[in-house]
Amino acid sequence: MDIAIEEKKSPGIKRYLLLALLAVPVFFAAKYLIYLGQSDFSIDRNSIVLDVVKRGKYTVSVRGAGLLVPDNIQWLSATFEAKVEKVIVKAGNVVKEGDLIVLLSNPQLERQLAEAKWELEAMEAEVKAERVAQESALQQQVSNALNAKIDYEIGVDEFNARSELIETGATSKLEYNRARLAKVQLKQRWKSSQDQLKKMEENLIAQNSARSARLSKSKKILESIQQQVDDLEVKASMDSIVLEVPLQAGQRVMMGANIAKLAQQDSLIAELQVPEIQIREVAVGQKVIIDTRNNKIEGEISRIDPAVINGNVQVDVSFTSKLPDDARPDLSVNGEIKIAEIEDALYVSRPLFAQSRSQTNFYKITEDGMFAKRVQVQVGFGSVNQIQIIEGLKVGDKIVTSDPTRFETYESFRLN
Fold first, then answer.
1. For the range 85-88, what are the long-range contacts, defined as Cβ-Cβ under 8 Å and sequence gap of 24 or more?
2. Does the pTM exceed 0.70?
3. 195-212, pLDDT tens digit by residue?
4. Cα 187 from Cα 298, distance rounded (Å)
5. Which of 83-97, 166-180, 315-329 is predicted least confidently?
6. 57 CB burial (10 A radius; 0-12, 13-18, 19+)
7. From CA 279, how far away is CA 331, in angstroms rounded?
8. Fewest beta carbons less than 10 Å away: which of 112, 162, 219, 254?
9. Taking the CB of residue 384, how many other CB atoms lie within 10 A of it?
């Protein structure tokens, strides 16, 4: 009878299998611990923004937001104290030069105007009477001078006749001497009348000048009062849009008070607010594209404000192309300032707080995509959304471009 011998399995195989099963999780656990040990901080990958370094044509531009404002603004003011009778137009109305805007009244001015007219009329009548009287006296003096001349000529003739007669003895010596003295007297009288005539002519000229000066003064006073009365009808000084009329009917206004604010509608500029960290490359004369959201207008920088206000610098843009129909004062616009164009450059999306032409730190993603490590980078020109890379990164490198305040104290961090 055969007896079956049962072969026993070796207990070592089970041990090795058990150790192998235990070694696998231990290996992965150790690897994970090593991975965790490479960084003290971790962050959700979906909570950050990444971008890849690229090479190509790079346009350097700076963007700013602002408003369209009038380049030619005029305030119309009151030339005398008055009362507002009627407000003809309101803010937003388009007016032509000479259009009535506000009607004022001042009874005192109107009385002064009437009195000035009466005074001028009276003075004109008085001047006319004085001139007529002087001209009559002058004519009389002309007649006197003419008569004196005739008398002198008669005296000369008589003296000549006496001179001829005394030689023949037909007249006495006494008669001859009387004729000679009469000639001398008549000559002096004629000369005196001529001098008087000359003085009267000079006096008439002086009196006429004085009268003309008084008349001119009265006329100027009348014109001034008339202008003040005319100014009670406040009219547009140019083709424009009314920006402001800070008055209402019945209100009293003082001399010099503002009546209406006008702006020349076809003469606008853009006032852009550019962040101070981007103003470094902006210069007068650079080209600008202004976006009204309906149209785009070409312009160039005409002025840069020297002061920084609330982190921004004001840049004035004058337009070099025709303004569209939707352009009007206080219209919100965006502007893109063209700084330069580089044909071949490394560039990447601009990380938050990155400044142009500086040495800064970016967080570069490792090749395995598991970590972000701080690297030092030299950057060049900064644009609206991009910045030029000079040193520290190469094409294809991936960096963090979102707000670094959560992890900026760490040299590296994990991406979960």
1. 85/249, 86/249, 87/245, 87/247, 87/248, 87/249
2. no
3. 887 887 788 888 888 888
4. 91
5. 166-180
6. exposed
7. 23
8. 254
9. 16
